[in-house]
Amino acid sequence: MTRRFLVVTVSLAATVAFLIGLVVAGTLRPAPGLPVGMDSAAAIGEAPAYAALAHEITSSALSPAVSFADIAERLNPAVVSIDASSRGVARVAPQLPEPPGPLFRQPERDRNGQKRGAGTGFIIDAAGFILTNHHVVDGADRIMVQVADGRTFRAEYIGSDPDTDIALIRVESTVALPFATLGDSDSLRVGEWVIAIGNPLAYEHTVTVGVVSFIGRKLFDTSLDRYIQTDAAINFGNSGGPLINARGEVIGITSAISSRASNIGFAVPINQASAILPQLRETGRVSRGFIGVMLRNVDADLQRALGLPSAGGALVQDVAPGSPGARAGLRSYDVIVAVDGSSIESDTALIEIIAARPPGSAATVHLLRDGRPIEVTLKLAERPQRNRPDSNDTDRPQPTSRRGPLLGLSVRQLDGRSNVRFGLPDGTRGVVVSRVEPLSTAFDADIQRGHVLLEIDRQPIVNLEDYRRLTDDARPGDVLAMYFYRPEINQRALETLTIDER
Predict the structure, then answer these.
(1) Of 83, 86, 135, 366, which residue is the catalytic one?
(2) What is the pLDDT of residues 116-142, one digit of tens each?
(3) Which domains are assigned to the chain?
(4) Catalytic annotation present for 239
(5) Of 339, 449, 459, nearest to 401 (Cα)?
(6) What is the pTM of this model?
């Protein structure tokens, strides 16, 4: 009897203790963990800030999850499939350099000899205007559009811009068509969720999800490209489809993929499309301002090599003959620091400002020449359209050399044979690059066989003696500003080469 009483008593006590524990635990909240790198003393000393941080983390964790299904359901009706056909000679997607390649489904020949290809687009307003890629409709004699409910329309070509790979077409419908809302791609951040909708490999209205991997990727034209990179699965046939944010707004136009990976895709920012839509609607083409100079950023190495007062601005590497820059007297080594009073921090900023202005307009350029401020006024010309290079032009030589191990260069004297072999302009003076060491500083700067070295640190190079004189005293860690003529692009370019430590 005593033993049974003891067992019952212990059991009741344990049960009561467990229930009391549940009640107490229900009235308490566990203390949030400390952020990485913050010790307890720091947390106590910054109690208000830490409390706000903990509240922010808790609030974000409790926010409702994004429903990709709702977004896809709302946007899918605005996505269309595009069938572009041409007669006679095959219309093929542009040959773009690796790793990126077009998302256009390559044209196929039907029994009548017609060429056909497929892509994607999306309706942007009730009037039936559709955005897609330039390479989807380029050269097409007939453009057919199928909307989500199965109806097919013959589309009218309105215009396109090869430089940004954007095209505008239009369909007319007796009933209202659903359309997508355009967002603000400038507010996009790396890590945000995005959705791609398109017709990959003819699988219509395929929805995939991923995140923004990078913003501002340069692929084909370093002056205009600002591609959004994403790991959302996209394939051939997605070209021209929308890239959508978690609010259901279109923030990009899917345009290219990496041919070496299955999860690297690129989209044109929608703000680039919005900026040129008025011109496409009115004239069918895009005109951009142009001053005719080749530029590069002024970084710390270039500032050090040329003795510039500060880093920042856009340095003029070359001036095209007969261009607005040439007529205004711009010279190599000029550093453009402002346009009409707006400061210039980089070559990209300068190009964006100039390209946004209409040809024929005037611009006042503020620059530094040998440390002296100068102001010139020029009249903008129209920017030539981009010539996309062939992938065969990207072959890199694999030379070896014993000479110039610190720079990774071998050079030889220019002669008549060199001028003919490398297609150099008459009167070119300098030394020609004969070999480049793999993995050297010259290799990293993309210096190639056939490039002509014209100057080192603004000192002209006429012969091999000049080259040796200006490089013999260089020490590991020194930075040399080397001015090259690149025959493959018919332009001069300034490169900074840091002497290797070996």
Answers:
(1) 135
(2) 678 999 999 999 999 999 999 998 888
(3) 66-286 (2.40.10.120), 289-382 (2.30.42.10), 397-498 (2.30.42.10)
(4) yes
(5) 449
(6) 0.66
